[in-house]
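Q: What changes when retinal is included in the input?
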Amino acid sequence: MSAADAYQLVYNFMSLAIAAMGASFFFFVSARGALKEGNRMAVTLSAVVVLIAFYHYVRIFDSWVAFGTTGAPFNEAYRYVDWLLTVPLLVAELVLVLKLDKKLESTLIKRNVFYAFAMIATGYVGEMTNITTVDLASPRTIWGAISSVFFVLILRDLFGGIDASIKKQSKDIQGIFKILRVVLIATWGVYPIAYLLPAISGNLGLTAQDGLVLKQVGYTIADILAKPGYGLLIWKIATLKNGSSK
Ligand code: RET
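A: The predicted holo structure follows.
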């Protein structure tokens, strides 16, 4: 891929992300009004998440354009600040639609907000180191591994919460929870893989530039699926719960 094509590909995905975040914000804001009070909060959080992401993608896009035109360093920190704010909210919205007992709900939210902060902060330290070869002792690998421990703890807790909730649900809702479980793994799992790409590009027969491009495209697609996409599933669950007594 030429440098110009690579630049354009990332540019187009970032532009798509701005559109997806902005459009889904309007959707979530209008859709929440049709829900009963008790089901509304999760969808409100989706709206907050995509608004935060909309802002950050505007900044990310600007930073990419500056990088492409003046060679100024691309500011990856926007992504990490975005995740620092949105991942705890995404965790909270999932826990809210599980409708667990209040004590378990509050424990799960508090614990996972902490795990999310720790996952992103340690990942950021690793992200700031740039390597283009596999080195198990490199700071990127070590911080990435520490971050992954928190990642596994979050997934374990959320899956445990879904399991505790799913038995009490109607068949329709059970089906969506199953989809949500797959979406959670399939989208959140992209982030650590994208993080690794610059380091393993050489082993995959790719150039360092390919590694960086795939990382940016990977993070961007994952963000579109994990924020608006996931928010739509949460909205669907809230809508179905709205019509049932459970
Ligand atoms: C990092 C560093 C390397 C190890 C792991 C990571 C995980 C990141 C995740 C981010 C999720 C972000 C979401 C954003 C949506 O708004 C930090 C890349 C495990 C899971 C869901």
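Observations recorded in class: The radius of gyration is 19 Å.
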